[in-house]
């Protein structure tokens, strides 16, 4: 009965939005007749109808808030929402891809802030949905109680079914092919698996074998999204994980662990190869890769020229480098957070996120390959 009720409400909202747009001489739920998205969502003409986001805590904007897990950030001093309450974002403001997609890219694309799947309802889903979940990876560990990538894809299919039921398969299919699908995932497959001292994974696979395993599964999952209608993909690579404060604290180091940095390099190399293969073998697909590792390497080498002064300690955390225990509820963070590269043990500050977002949108092939997000959206 509850499902029927919400289905009726959802249908009513869609009908009302249709009527409103028709009264204003618009063609259905978006520009140029697109059934996904709407006009002037973020202040300008839409370059794409909608944006769908998949990933982990670097992108999660609240999907874990009601899960029985410690992998959540719905408390101060983490990001606050427009009503002054905690958002569930793992940052001192917007997460990396919210900054990139809302403050920078989303506004340029003409889209509003993308809602979390757990909170999206009615016409909100027409601009896109964020399915990301903190602690998520490609290999699901049940005790983490998060939403793994396979389940995030199923959640997207639920959204797609809802929209299709109300708007028709043909129109939705045409619009979905123009939407951007962002995926940022993989760090937890190392941090919460391969690098865990009580896990046997490192004894079963060397670095290349593990990367091969992960990217083979990644290719399958992306092909599933393609079969659901996705055509424009933005994939974020892994960063310089040996430089994050959690690793500095775990290995008791004052500088980056090159052992950890070298460990994840095969993953990024495999993803680039996978992108080339998918672009060649999936008709109509366009995959692009954001080289987060290169961005971080440049940042850590030239941090002062970018306005930062602290690269080896966190703004909010406890223990060595502030990286042994992540930011606790109501803990007082640093006063000069704009000078820090890292907000907590795992995540960059808002200032870093804004910088990376702009590079992903406008950057050349040294940091985003084979095209940047602006170019992808224009296709």
TrEMBL record:
It comes from the Eukaryota. This is GDSL esterase/lipase. It comes from Citrus sinensis. The lineage of its organism: Eukaryota, Viridiplantae, Streptophyta, Embryophyta, Tracheophyta.
